[in-house]
Amino acid sequence: MRISEIFHSIQGEGLLLGVPSVFVRTSGCNLRCVWCDTPYASWNPEGEAMDTATILERVRGYECRHVVLTGGEPMIATGILELAKALRSEGMHLTVETAATIPPDGMTFDLGSLSPKLSNSTPDVKSAGSWHDRHEETRIRPDVVRAWLHAGPCQLKFVVTAVEDLPEIEALLAEVGTVPGFSRDQVLLMPEGTDPEKLRSQGPLLAEICMEHGFRYAPRIHIELFGNTRGT
Predict the structure, then answer these.
(1) Considering its fold, how many domains does the chain have in total?
(2) What CATH number corresponds to the domain at position 208?
(3) What is the pTM of this model?
(4) Cβ atoms within 10 Å of 116's Cβ, excluding its own
């Protein structure tokens, strides 16, 4: 599979916020989010072709128990199921970051970090061309989200740009329905942005929304700590 980068950092988002983790970022994505913060691994896939043994060797070198498979969209990477099984067989805690557009069939994981894309992610036709329709048709798959929630422990993360995004989130949750072991406090709302000042400015409103609706506020501490840079 093509790997954009492998690095050791602090988990900046979600239920494992602050946990030292090794990130394995695959290259390639089936979506084109207008606010994507890793276009180098999504829009114009880059990186080195690596087999499972090579990736394992790199990950072992960090002596870190938590590993995150991310992208791009890792679920489209050739060999991703084999890699996930190999990582967990070594006793590593595995988080899979995915937009939840591809079912988890055969995927083994400790935490599914699902980030369904709201309409605020859709690029305009002028800038994205045919990707506008492809993105819009693919970005929300309630059946796939449901499959992940039934497959194992998950969190749902949403990038929120305005109060107007809330009806979309509620509609998706309603369509997914009740899943044993999953509750609203595993739904995380994140402010959109790659600049610390912008994230801070959106924080108070988003915190109010979380308190009102029973969701969890999710800061992006890697941006605060390191800025929007690779390898963080």
Answers:
(1) 1
(2) 3.20.20.70
(3) 0.94
(4) 24
